[in-house]
């Protein structure tokens, strides 16, 4: 989509910094999400958590870790990275034996091959074409495996759009978003589908040898 940006967009960064304290309301169906009609949502969130817990223990980097809602279920040594200091602080509180830092997902501050697995939830589906290419190049450089969790395509939902997001304080923000069919995500990443739900899709792919 023309003009789309996410990972290095200053307005997007400000939105997530402001949203940090209320981010989990989306997962938990609280606040303004309590009145949304999302049939099967709670069951799929639980299934997603089980999927993350079932991943083999590994040296993992969680890109755009957000509040750490999923990060805390990764087994093995975990590092969380987010552009938002407030988000990174929340994740740090949830993985006390791991580490978190504020950083750029498109220029990772790690040597080649630093991790066994790169995990990311609800980040890849926000990236326009050029940012996706940069992200995948960095993923391939630092990790041997990639696990991507994102929003599934649904009947009636556009494949991509600009969304207006409203926070609890009433502020409005414009965010780029894609909804991904399992086949589309595999075509972009390779690998295999490990979750194909109404609300969530996840793919696991090998990276460098």
Radius of gyration: 16 Å
Low-pLDDT parts are none
CATH topology: Rossmann fold
The proportion of strand residues reads: 25-35%
Major beta sheet summary? 7 strands, mixed
Description:
- The chain is α/β, with parallel strands linked by helices.
- The chain has one domain (10-206): 3-Layer(aba) Sandwich (Rossmann fold), CATH 3.40.50.
- Helix content is 29%, strand content 26%.
- It has helices spanning 10-19, 24-28, 41-54, 85-94, 129-142, 182-189, and strands spanning 60-63, 78-82, 99-102, 115-121, 143-151, 160-166, 172-178, 192-196, 200-206.
- It has a seven-stranded mixed β-sheet with strand order 3-2-1-4-5-9-8, with helices on both faces.
- Helix 4 links the parallel strand 2 (78-82) and strand 3.
- The longest helix has 14 residues, at 41-54.
- It is globular.
- It starts with 9 loop residues before the first helix and ends with a strand.
- 35% of the residues are buried.
In short:
The chain is an alpha/beta fold and 209 residues long.
What secondary-structure arrangement, pairings included, does this model have?
Layout lengths: L9 H10 L4 H5 L12 H14 L5 E4 L14 E5 L2 H10 L4 E4 L12 E7 L7 H14 E9 L8 E7 L5 E7 L3 H8 L2 E5 L3 E7 L3
Parallel strand pairs: 1-2, 1-4, 2-3, 4-5
Antiparallel strand pairs: 5-9, 6-7, 8-9
């Amino acid at each position: 989509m023309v003009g789309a940006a996410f990972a290095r967009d200053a307005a997007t960064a400000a939105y997530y910094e402001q949203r940090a304290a209320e981010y989990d309301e989306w997962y938990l169906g609280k606040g303004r999400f309590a009145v949304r009609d999302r049939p099967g949502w709670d069951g799929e969130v639980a299934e997603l958590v089980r999927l993350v817990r079932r991943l083999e223990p590994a040296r993992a980097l969680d890109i755009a870790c957000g509040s750490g809602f999923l990060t805390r279920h990764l087994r093995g040594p975990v590092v969380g990275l987010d552009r938002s200091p407030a988000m990174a602080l929340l994740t740090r509180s949830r993985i006390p034996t791991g580490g978190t830092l504020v950083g750029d997902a498109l220029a990772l501050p790690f040597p080649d091959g630093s991790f066994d697995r790169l995990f990311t939830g609800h980040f890849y589906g926000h990236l326009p074409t050029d940012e996706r290419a940069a992200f995948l190049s960095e993923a391939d450089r630092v990790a041997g495996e990639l696990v991507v969790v994102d929003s599934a395509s649904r009947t009636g939902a556009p494949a991509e759009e600009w969304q207006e997001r409203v926070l609890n304080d009433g502020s409005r923000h414009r965010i780029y978003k894609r909804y991904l069919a399992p086949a589309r995500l595999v075509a972009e990443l390779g690998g295999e589908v490990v979750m194909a739900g109404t609300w969530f899709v996840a793919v696991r792919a090998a990276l460098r040898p």
